Amino acid sequence: MALTVSNWRHSITLRLALAFALLAILVFATLGIYLSRSTDQHMAELDAHELLGKLALARHIGSQAESPAAFANRLSDALVGEHGIIVAVDGSSGALFRWPEEGLAASLAAASAGVGEQPTRLREDGMDYRAVAGNEQTGWGEAVRVVVARDIHHHTDFLDQLQRDFWWAVLAAAVLTVVVGMLIVRHSMRPVRAIAQAAGRISAGRLAERMPQQDVPPELAELVGAFNDMLGRLEESFARLSDFSADLAHELRTPIHSLRMQTEVSLNRSRSADEYRELLASNLEEYDRLTRIIADMLFLAKADHGLIVPHRERLDLHALCERLLEYYGLLADNVAVHLSGARLAAEGDRLMLERAIGNLLVNAIHHTPAGGWVTVSLHDEGGMAVVAVANTGRPIAPEAMERIFDRFGKLDQSSEGTGLGLAITRSIVLAHQGRISVTSDATATVFSVALPKSATATSQAAI
User: Which CDD domains match (predicted)?
Assistant: First the structure.
């Protein structure tokens, strides 16, 4: 994708490169200021050492001189070869000595009225000087004031040029840092671009593709792993959705096809009122089946989005199961049905729990051969009220156990049910913060529903 001006404003590459440049400028500027001040301080120390030495020399010569002329001669000889040094000596009667010329030395002597033995910076006629001054008692008995100064323009010029060169170097370093930083960041962002390209290739039909995890920087390894895990979950969800759509189409197609055929047959010739009445009754059964499928699907759709909110009330699970056995026991002509266990109470929605446990009970009765038995038992397990529905009959195959709670998951395709009962039961149990499990062997198949318990009674009952 081409980068526009708006994109560059939000570019991570540009931001990091500018951050590198700013950091480089701050580091170099701090270093430059430190070096500049250190250099200036070092030069000031050298100047002070030289100036105080010349002041001490003038005092020494003055203390031994017997006349102003002898003092001037000896001091002139001592200053031969000293470049940039200005000396002015004034006595009570006026100027006694000027070096190297009268005008410059006189002006510095006048400007240094407040200067002492601590080196002081002076500016005279656009030039920079550093000066010291002191009083002394001469050998001929006169008190004089000695001013020693040094021309430091070459120091300032050198430092100014050094600073200009340094700031140009800082600017060049900043530009270079931006360019190199952008190249480094762009190179470092190659794994991210590879991830983006891989993500762009993924579609609903290519969910099996995964991000390459080899040679991925450690900082991105967690992101790539999470993205691949997400793709795995999406692939599984799409597969389940595809299977569900196919099953739903199959379940809806059967009653619709039956209705269509019956209607077409009825229109082939004229029929009596009784025949039309039988046809409408048959159609009504198919409409009821469609209504149940649609209602169950709406219920599961709400459950998937957390819209099923049970009405909480204190329920006697033993009494609830007793009523269900009395109602559904009519279906168990050749099956023995029993209820046993403790009287347990739980907080939940009566209608929902009746539907959930009723689904398990109906399934158990339908899959129990003649002469078998169905048992509903209640017991306490780890602070949960457990309702277990067990029945004899053919055990559930291990490969079917993984999809037994799936929608339209029928173990016996010849059965008349929609295959939504166990899925609805699981949704109801989960909405009550409970859990559901199943075990099956040659002895019995047991569905266990564990619900948060609110009260326990110790009395036992059995039917």
Answer: HAMP (cd06225), HisKA (cd00082)
